[in-house]
Specification:
single chain, alpha/beta, Immunoglobulin-like
């Protein structure tokens, strides 16, 4: 008799567990999937545009050494010179170089291009985007489309600055 009671108890527990674990009707399950779908999409949605701010100081430093965007995004970048020195002695710009560009070669060539904000005209194909040179207390804003996914360098091309004022511009795939 005890064996029969134990057997019935095991069967009853198994039936109750399967009934509770089913998760409801097919309609309820479908409704749950539909309700969860928009949340999953919004978590991976990437905005069409992004605003970035980077600062340059009188100590020849950017406050960020990495900026991240997604390919194809419209990027609005604001460079702020938070120092007080004039652009003639401590000017800064922000230059996004193409993947093929060598920052050292570009920086060396930039020293002979003061009339074009230290953007050498024979290396324009190395430049994706750039701000003008600004002095202490000034800011400049540019807008451009993020390039293809990959890693790019950004620099300040004011003479002597590129070696310490640089960073990575990381473009993530869509």
């Amino acid at each position: 008799m005890n064996i029969l009671k134990n057997y019935l108890a095991v069967v009853l527990v198994a039936v109750l567990m399967s009934a509770c674990g089913g998760g409801g009707t097919k309609e309820q399950a479908a409704s749950k999937e539909v309700a969860e779908a928009p949340a999953a999409e919004s978590a991976t949605a990437v905005p069409d545009s992004v605003a970035l701010v980077i600062e340059g100081t009188d100590n020849m430093k950017f406050n960020k050494d990495e900026l991240k965007v997604t390919e194809g995004q419209v990027v609005t970048l604001t460079l702020k010179h938070v120092g007080s020195m004039p652009k003639g002695s401590m000017g800064h710009n922000w230059v996004l170089l193409a993947a093929k560009a060598d920052p050292a070669v570009f920086g060396a060539a930039a020293t002979s291009a003061p009339d074009t904000d230290y953007i050498p005209q024979d290396k324009l194909d190395w430049v994706i985007a750039h701000t003008p040179v600004i002095g202490g207390g000034e800011e400049a804003t540019i807008t451009f489309e993020a390039p293809a996914a990959g890693y790019y360098k950004f620099i300040c091309s004011f003479p002597g600055h590129w070696g310490v004022m640089q960073g990575d511009f990381v473009v993530q795939p869509k």
